[in-house]
Amino acid sequence: MTRKGSRIYQIKVTLDNVHPAIWRRIQVPSLITLFELHETLQVVMGWDNYHLHSFLIHSEHYGDPTYDEFDELGTKDETRYKLSQVIREEGVRFVYKYDFGDGWKHTLRVEKIFPAEKGIHYPRCVKGKRACPPEDVGGVWGYEHFLEAINDPEKSERDKYLEWIGGEFDPEAFDLEEVNALLRSTTRDKNRETFSAWSTEDDRFRTTLADVSAAWAQGLPEDQRVVAENLPLRRDTVTLLTYLRDNRVTGTQSKGNLTLKAVHEISEQFVNPPILEEKIGDSVFRIRSEEAVWPLYFVHLLASVSGLVTGGPSRRWRLTPLGEQFLTAPAPPQVWFLFTTWWTQANWAMASPYEFRDDSVLAGFREFTSDHLLDLPVESRMLFEPFADRLIEDIGLVCPIEDQDQARHVLRAIVEGIVVDPLTDFGILIPEQGPHKTLGARYKEMLAFQVTPMGRGLLEAMKAL
Description:
Blueprint: E1 7-15, E2 23-29, H1 34-45, E3 53-57, E4 60-63, E5 76-77, H2 83-86, E6 93-98, E7 104-115, E8 124-129, H3 139-150, H4 158-165, H5 176-189, H6 209-212, H7 222-230, H8 232-246, E9 249-250, H9 260-267, E10 277-280, E11 283-286, H10 294-306, E12 309-312, E13 315-319, H11 321-328, H12 331-344, H13 359-374, E14 382-383, H14 384-395, H15 404-425, E15 429-436, E16 440-451, H16 453-464
Parallel strand pairs: 4-5
Antiparallel strand pairs: 1-2, 1-7, 2-8, 3-4, 3-6, 6-7, 9-13, 10-11, 12-13, 14-16, 15-16
Helix pairs in contact: 8-10, 10-12, 13-14, 14-15
């Protein structure tokens, strides 16, 4: 749908310094905001919107000012500027930067401006060439090395890269119909809940912590009380809530994430502080958004879904009355509350390393995971692959990849991501990892796990609800 009075800008988008050229030709309404143009560029190029971005137009920077913490660039709020306000004539060139770590730079040129055609859905892509590089491939140089490696059977990194990318990658691929279908879907769904990971209703949880404290937390053996008290996930949740209580933190305008300042200050107080920057050779790689710091992002999502905090895009993150009560509760009820949130309310897909499209499958995960884990003796070593394969078969989980070995690898990774890893965080499982069979000792893979005594009690209490 085109807004009344809107003209159409035809823009050629070219990814700089990549040969042969990767480009798109798009037509967008003149009255869209620069933030909406960013969303369109993500879809047509094929990016996943994992990283920060900015526009450079007539020497002015536009983006999310939240990330320009010291006002070094004088970043203007992209949600407040329409395309027609900053560009008024044909022939203008401007820049769209994406992923400041990999450093992708796109040159945009306004080819022509014309009246909207009746019956045409805008924005749309009218032409393009070649696939977008994979996210986090390492910029232009990394992409060149990636292509060289996957096309040379003699390269030692070939198998590693193919596994990382999911089995195959065609740099010449570009599907115009698929891109426009995604654009229509994005326009239709942009105001749905999936636009933001955060829950935003302040009053949807009116319960008290006592209402959700099960018999599990009463009469708990002393050794398990100590485990609950020392559980890093619980302690990290207290750290997050305390920080949000004592500091004013406004969610970023695009996704509602914590600011980088808050990410750093909270992370350094975690039981096991996550790595926020890493030096590889002469380069230093720094995290650029909360989503890149999974331990913090996971705790934040749990707190939001459970109603301990409220906030979102351009809204201040605050503790709710339930969040205040959580801070004063004993450790066992805190652990139970967080676990019931994950088990009954959270979308497990958020922990998956691969995209999920069928929510009914996730429902099956909960039921079958509980049954299979309760069948295991406490503190008995269970091999991961047979467990994962049995769970995959019982649920009916499939992966649409022709290479069955690769498909099995993907499915096992999903089980590890949404079952083993989170339940390890809750103290329900103890994992055992070893050297990766394909990639060698430098990389780890899941070998086995065991159910803890506290984990058995939590699963039994959940089953009884």
